[in-house]
User: Fold this.
Amino acid sequence: QVQLVESGGGLVQPGGSLRLSCAASGSILSFYRMGWYRQAPGKQRELVATITSAGSTDYADSVKGRFTITRENAKNTVYLQMDSLNPEDTAVYYCNAVPYALSLRGSWGQGTQVTVSS
Assistant:
């Protein structure tokens, strides 16, 4: 089973930027569709962005034009570049792996906190 570890969260002022990383181990990243989700206090976990092994991306309307998801299969790492951050982006951000093959299992990371505040 793939293991995922997120990093790069922290405190940033409104209008600032952060880049989150998700390092995968135990499997090959290209075997999975990767995604970033977030969960704010008192709210349900929501999809932020996804990227296929071929590099096709999809974004939540709330982050389109501000966030960019990328992947480096050779490094087994997925990134989420977040620009023009606002307080509504404050949440715990989770990395997710969905396998293409039924023989594999998906996985979630432990999450990394992003706080946007002045």
